Amino acid sequence: MQSQIKGLCLALCVSVSLIWSTSAQAATQLSADIEPGNRLGLGLMGAAYDFGLGPVGLGFALNTREPQSLLSGNFRTEYMQLRYSLRGMWRIAEIDSLAMGVLAGVHLDPGQAGERPGITPEIGMGVAWDLRSFDLPFALRLNLSVGIHPYRPASWQQNATPPSFLQRLGLGPATSLEAAWFVNENTEVTVGGGTLVGLRLKI
After folding, report:
1. What is the pTM assigned to this prediction?
2. In this predicted model, which residue has the larger pLDDT, 122 or 22?
3. Spatial separation of the C-alpha atoms in residues 154 and 27, rounded to whole Å
4. Pick from 2, 17, 8, 15: nearest CA to 195
5. What domain range is 46 assigned to?
């Protein structure tokens, strides 16, 4: 019975995370349950480094523009261009196996030839639920953020009216849902969190 419950929990976490997974980031997310020390996150088309010090986590990530488009077979050279992210998380509460934090970040997309670079600042919150307290080697993590997306008009739009502040406001790149499997104390396999499948290592 216990093994069936574990299997059901894992299947639920994986299914929800895959549905939620976006192409915003190709590396693993920074979450509210970050622990002290160094973490290396590897996604399908990106990598991230995060450092935890007490309740604060800081890090950066390198990502491609459209990792899921590559998986669909719609390969184009510009999809391999890197985007750069700085991110931080401050854990403000921890109740039993539930952690909550405030996140902030800034993301730079250099753009294609002839385009302006795009900068997206964001702020939001994160929630992490560690299921190891239930003797399950999994965690479920949700980040929700709001970002100000850049206005980058095409050449034929140069004389168009720029969008307003509210029109540029939307979900931030860090918005993601992640399910994690603790292989051991130094290794996690993740599903979702901005990449379909990822690996987080304690270094």
Report:
1. 0.78
2. 122
3. 29
4. 17
5. 2-202
